[in-house]
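Contributing: when you submit paired examples, paste them exactly as shown. First protein:
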Amino acid sequence: MSEPHYDVAVIGGSQAGLSMSYHLSEAGIDHVVFEKNSPGHAWRTQRWDNFCLVTPNWQCKLPGFPYPGDEPNGFMPRDEIVRYVEDYAARIEAPLRLGVGVQRLGATDAGFRLETSDGACTADAVVLAVGGYHQPNIPRLAERLPEGIVQIHSSGYRNSRQLPPGAVMVVGSGQSGCQIAEDLLLDGRDVHLVVGSAPRSPRAYRGRDATDWLYDLGQYDLPVERHSLGEKVRRRANHYMTGRGGGREIDLRRFATQGMTLYGRLLDLAGGRLRFGDDLRKNLDAADTSYDNICAVIDRYIDDNGIAAPPGHRCAPVWQPGATVTDLDPVAAGISAIVWATGFRSDWSWVDLPIFDGAGYPTHTRGVTSVPGIYVLGLPWLYTWGSGRFVGVGRDAAYLAERIQAHRHQAALAAA
């Protein structure tokens, strides 16, 4: 019995893979979408109970399915995000193979072969729409912490009640770390936060949400090659703020005035004591500088276009670090749990194709890899700031659909 063959195989059935399916269907291209779990699975299983989108609902613009609710300026909570993705899959009637994971992808003489949990198949082209957040990244020093301290990764955090009584340390001050630290603080927990170099952003500024201004400014359309950091921006943490409570800023200095204990970057664990860098003030100042820079960009846009808007403002620090704390005995401090908000590692070990750089990142130009017929989609800064978000993934999928059409045409000419 011959193996099934598809013109295009899409691996991953969340917003990126579904957007790809939409544009392939529009182009009349036969395809299949392999999803080892279900649409929206990561949103359901890797987000805490009070999680909300950071960007406003109106930015949910999956192709053919803009945000359907009545709160365009609100911020969808976790369960609504899951429904939005699931409803999208149903609306476009995506050819999903649910519960089927791809275990190996390699080349054949005529195309590509996929080994799945439900047998093998072949395809002329393959789109890797699996994102880049595959495995929790927890530092090895975690292995040396006292056994009595409960440890979880941010993707496993749901609420404060799952943690034992006592103080909680959150390691990492990106979006997840800051929002989880706030969640714990609002629940009355004693919170310790290890602060890194993540930038912060205003929420509301001069009468509108800051992301509304940035959208009008074209920031979500800025190609990676035109960013001042170039491809290095792909490794940069996102600005922290929150959509919780209708959307608000996150100011770690204010958290400190409310009882949260802040530290510099975690360096090591030695003799049962955690070692921190002497960089807390530097990291807080850098985050505020990022905040002020965003305000300045918006100010210039308002001035250049003669837009009537309320006055602006800049950061006014409400707290400054005192004596530097560079080490801590977590047991003596009453810390019963640590939440590792330290990001994820990519795992492309199942892809037997020469498309990766020395760091294991897929080399590509706007999602088109160095291997003809292999494409990537849904990665942060794949092409623009919006590439890894609901607002921009559809445009990237449309572009790849055009490139797939061109690939198919070239293959047909070569076979003629």
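Second protein:
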Amino acid sequence: MDFSEAANRISRKFAKGGQTPDVKKIEGKLRRLVDEFGVQPSEAERSVTNELAKEFNLPAPGSGGSAGGGGKGGGTEEKKIADGVPGEWVTIEGKIVALSNPPSPSIAQSGVIADDSGAMRFVVWAKSNAPAMAEGSWYRIESAVVDEFKGVANLKIHSGTTIKEISEDRSLIPSPVPIKDLHPGIDSVRAKFIQEWDASHERMLQSGLLGDETGTIKFVIWKEPGKEKLVPGAVYNLFYAQVDEFNGRLSLNLNTATILQEEGEIEVSGGEVAVTGAIVHIAPGSGIIKRCPVEGCNRALSRQNYCPVHEIQPKFIYDLRIKGWLDDGEKTHNILIQRDVVESLTGISLAQAQEIAENNPLGMDEVFLQMRDTVLGRYITCHGREIDNRLLVNKCDKVVFNSGDHTALLNRAGGAPS
């Protein structure tokens, strides 16, 4: 886009009516919209034209109406939040239901705004010098930009946006969405906390699996002041959670969510699989392990009792697990088996494993070797949920060797021997 030419073109439109707009300011606004906000050049030119028309109390010259199809808000169309489309300039009225820590100094505020149609993330640019908005309050936001980030619509508040607080406290009751119907963006769910996972990052407060009657989904809570962990087995209403997508899989970020525990129950379904095959590999980190005893951590420690977050932990907690591969003859499944199932599968209890680790010359390695010798090559059926290409096993059944099945596998691999 030739910003200078576009600025002169806009200036000439108003010069016909006796106005003398500042061409340099026009050019600066166009550059900001296109370069900083990613607005299409034609839409940027139309927006600046309408802004000047409002400033001079004139109809937008040559527009045949207001940008975005006419309506309120200085040339932008008033819309419900759910109807905002990337590339549009809109005016909305909504409630600030969550504020989050701005990820960059260039951002003054960020969070989630909602109305009775839905919710959307918003960003207030520091350069806009916009008034700070308060969580729980309603606002009318005029001439904001809806754009797109990672396939999700979000609202950008810039220097041309007007923010007015609405004194009326309107009723806003979000409706939960079934897990199977979630899509990237902001949504609300009613779900049961069915499985807690090890935190995989030092900034992670909690991670695990949520489920409802339609399916399951991974969730994460990042460490922030005031954030608390969920209680395994409890049922929650999670309003305005951020639904993210990575490699085709959805997950919930609960840092923006309003979390309310309830007394009800949910019969979780969906996501359960059963895989029968042979254990062909036991990975390092299996057997007896040590975990960090600091409340809320539970990370696996190194052999030197070192936690990546809480450093040396002499008062560690012992645990059992098996990480490995289960081959069903057609596909190899990455499996993770937790303590209670490990005890049942190997016949070695946590107390027995601890006695071996503390008194055998090989220590923890002896537990690993005994468990490996017990299960490696064994045919079993693993029941659980497959999340992020890993089968989280909650039950194992031993399978009696069937020579007919073995022959069939050989035939698939290379044909029957002559």
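If you have annotations for the second protein, write them as plain sentences, like these:
Helices lie at 3-15, 23-36, 41-55, 339-346, 350-359, 364-375, 403-414.
The chain has four domains: 3-55, 77-166, 179-262, 272-408.
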